[in-house]
User: Fold this.
Amino acid sequence: MRATAVANANLALVKYWGKRDEGLILPQHGSISLTLEGLETRTLVAFDPSLEEDDIRLGGRRVGSPRRVQGLLHIVRAMAGTDCRARVESENGFPTAAGLASSASAFAALALAASRAAGLELEGAALSRLARQGSGSACRSVYGGFVEWLPGSLPDGSDSFSVPLAPQDHWDLPVLIVLVRSGAKEVPSSEGMRRSVETSPFYPVWRQQAEKDLNLLRQAIAERDLHLLGRVAEENAMRMHAVAMAASPPVLYWSPGTLRVLEKVRALRREGLHAYASMDAGPHVHVLTSRDCAAALEAELAALPEVSEVLVSGPGPAARLLGAE
Ligand code: 2P0
Assistant:
């Protein structure tokens, strides 16, 4: 009746940006990500007949009734045929306060721990589908290495889940996570996506281009072609932000530090270093590089006054169970 699972965050190289079904969390188009080493969420779920309501703690602090966590627990209860309430204890091993996204690792770990604690043996597509219903990007964190989320077309979402493209050890691809100082609170990504789909004049073009980017990125991964991967990932990220900026009202995730890092990445690239940038729904910048350039790049970026911290990551493992009883 209890299980503990760990899952890693992921960086989308071709981004998921827009839903076709808000309730089931079904995307408008496919996406491809890299699961990230070292950025982990650890979650314990214990079903306990003595509880009258779910007891959910994040980082040791009790939180009221987070709608999405309870939604996922309800799905698991329905699948397992129980109405037993659960204790959930979740810890992030990386700085969430700095604004790094944690929903992918959080919901992948929750899906694995909750399903196992309820006596379900979900793996692969079934586990990915469950994680997706907590947070879209979580369906990719079920696998390690390079992962593709197949958008599917069925209204019930049964064909919308992730598949592994290449394992963690396929490519030693360092990723620097450059945390920039920023003050303003961001628009949540689900709201940014909704506004983009409904109001951005660029949205139809974004959707079409995503298909082209997916094809190029699959090729770059298969051939371990850093130039192609970096170019596609950087252009895709810039387009996602352009789509969001063109929404009404506009959604702007960047801070001055974001531009400073982008400028530096370009300058270092002109000097011959391998460096390509990607930004999610926030001001921080992920920089894709090669092993021989990583240390020099890290030093250059950490020296910028707008940068508070540089985390070094790379391809990470699949979601895994630490224990179940
Ligand atoms: C991604 N992002 O592909 C994109 C790129 C942010 C930018 O998925 O509403 O927390 O839970 O499905 O997964 C972040 O959004 O959104 C995200 P929901 P999620 O990684």
Observations:
- Helices lie at 67-80, 103-117, 124-132, 189-199, 203-223, 226-245, 256-270, 291-302.
